Amino acid sequence: ATMYAEKTINLCPDKFSTPYFVLGVLNYDYRNYQISVDYLNKAKVIGIKQRFKEEANSVLESALILAQIMNDTVPYNPEIVQGISTEADEYLPLISPDQEVAFYTRRGTRNELGIIDKKSEDFVFSEGDLENFNEGEDMKYPFNQNNNEGGATITIDNKVLYFTICSQHSSSYNNCDIYYVEKDENNKWSDLKPMKSVNNPKSWESQPSVSSDGSTLIFASDRRGGFGGIDLYQVKKDEFGYWGVPQNLGPIINSKDNEKSPFFHVDGETMYYASQQFPSLGGYDIFISKKGENDKWQKPKNLGFPINSENDELGMFVTTDGKTAYFCSNKLDGIGGWDLYSFDLYDKIKPKRVLFLKGDIKDSDGEVVDSVSLEFKNITTNETINISVNGGKYVSAVTLNDSDDVLITFNKKGYAFNSHYVSSTDENFSAPAKMDIEIDKIESGKTFEINNIYFETNSFNITDITKSILTAFSGYLKENSNLELLISGHTDNAGDENENMVLSENRAKSVYNFLIKSGISEDRLTFKGFGESVPIYNNSTSEGRSKNRRTECTIINK
After folding, report:
1. Which domain, by its residues, includes 413?
2. The domain that contains 288 carries what CATH number?
3. Residues 427, 423: Cα–Cα separation, whole Å
4. What is the pTM of this model?
5. 3 state SS of 376
6. Peptide bond preceding 279: is omega within 30 degrees of 0, i.e. cis?
7. pLDDT in tens, 513-545
8. Domain stop point among 349, 367, 390
């Protein structure tokens, strides 16, 4: 058909539309979308026969969309992930939300009894960071018990791991179900526990992805009642910690074809998944969907070419910091067959900003402090989130807009005030970070610093950041109504010593005045400036000078 159509066009280029129509449809089937568009547009100019019009318009509409995707190439720079990628096959990868552990399946050969080399699929983990993971080792019991295992997802505290186990039934049906394990106080995994509310004996359940708060699990299943062959479902925990009944994600996400490999980002609002639905460039493509109003998933978007191609793209996930995507492939020039690759995400397909923090809470003697009230306050929206502290440890993932600042306060009855201000521009918190906290009991004569009290150079005017912190501090003083404090101001040694003394006095007074206006009795507060006379760091470095510019409180009476 192609040869005759091309021959007709060469002989009579402007007389017949049907050869252009035929070549347009054929090139669409061959995935030459721009060529298809050109032929079909030429057919329309000449005049398409009535019996071909509906098909021509339908194919042209689809070809225009797919050609646009192909023509509008997106940034894509895949690089092999060293350490994890070996001469064996590595696939079904996941990196933990804190970006410190990678889980994946490795397929290779295992020598049994020194006689037989047997093909094996092992569930493996590697430790490190995004720049340098180790080669990995097999997961110990209860994993790798002669089943095909992998496709893991883990909660933000690395305490609950969900994954897939597949086994061959006597009926030759390859059944996959979702299981989970929990880590105890000794860092040992529990025995395997099936997701009873999810698993169906007559269907395939696989590829789980858990939300950052641990209350929602999205997974793939070929159970009856879906929109296509394989659909995406979600199941939620109730207030008592029990999983409910799985719900189909609906026709916005699921199509008449297949959907697989969901990845629910830590931001709680973004999902990446593989689908054969239109507009796929061929096979499975990776799509992104974000939650809109009423917590509903919005129309998905193809990630674009060349991230997607005429081949299958599956199993992509995105780091907590939203900067990097990871996937497995055997189509690139890797080390083995299937290897793990990463690439930088372009802005339009990034998730929302996430402030991910974890740490230990101890006193100055190194003893664990538990039962601490931990609060994250969004300074832009005034929204507050309470974070649980267990065994003196905390982990949190808070979704923010790019310009949002956050005030973090740690409170415990009988302990000194402790807060930390995280600016949206602070690169130290752009990726998952560890922030250990030291809080001490209130004792007369003890001094503690109020963190992040900032003043402009040579100024004693209260800044907006400082107002947020002092507002929280005044609330603390109201709860601890017996405290009497000396507010002390300190400077570095830059400039004149006498001027620094005056400046520190004025800054301490500014803090004093703000607290008085906030409703704290002046009988409980005094202030004093110490200038540069009490340094706590070396003034020879900019970091040291920054540490010396501080506001402290000394407990006069408790």
Report:
1. 352-441
2. 2.120.10.30
3. 9
4. 0.90
5. strand
6. yes
7. 999 999 999 999 999 999 999 999 999 999 999
8. 349
